[in-house]
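Justification of computing resources. Each target in the renewal requires a structure prediction run like the one illustrated here; the chain below, 177 residues long, is used simply to show the kind of job we budget for.
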Amino acid sequence: MPLQYTAMKISVLLLLISLLSGCLTISKQTEQAVYSNSIPNVWTIIGRISATNKGETETANFQLNQQNGYNQLTLTGALGFGQTTVKQTTQGLLVNNELTYQTLKEWMTLELGWYFPVNALANIVFKHNNNNIEDWQISTNKRRVFNGVAYPKIIRLNHSNKHLKIKLLLQEVNRLK
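Resulting structure tokens:
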């Protein structure tokens, strides 16, 4: 009798393993990512930014909204202290609701000491364009799924002429229109 009991255990174990491997195959098939191929008119990206400029690193939370071709970038310091909102409008650049005649790149360079190609971010995130843009080398090797669509999880931007590295960790991507 002990021999039958062992044979029964082995057959049950094999059956269980085959069921589990079948489940693994099904879950891998359903995890295949759907990629975006169009840029929406209205979108929001929320995440963390790390900027290394000449060996010094700064980090902040960011929220980037785009509507009708205009960007609004909100940077929040560590633990939520210090918030700056920069908004592109038809009149010019508004920094905390005060008009300035600088471009977003000029403002970022002057106030932060670094910048990144904000206008190129839509192509990187929504069209998965990893081609070099201007003087930036782009790397997006990890993906995350938001609302059933795969987007870059981490975007690395390295400036080819300056000692400037930007890393964006995307925590949320929303296609609003």
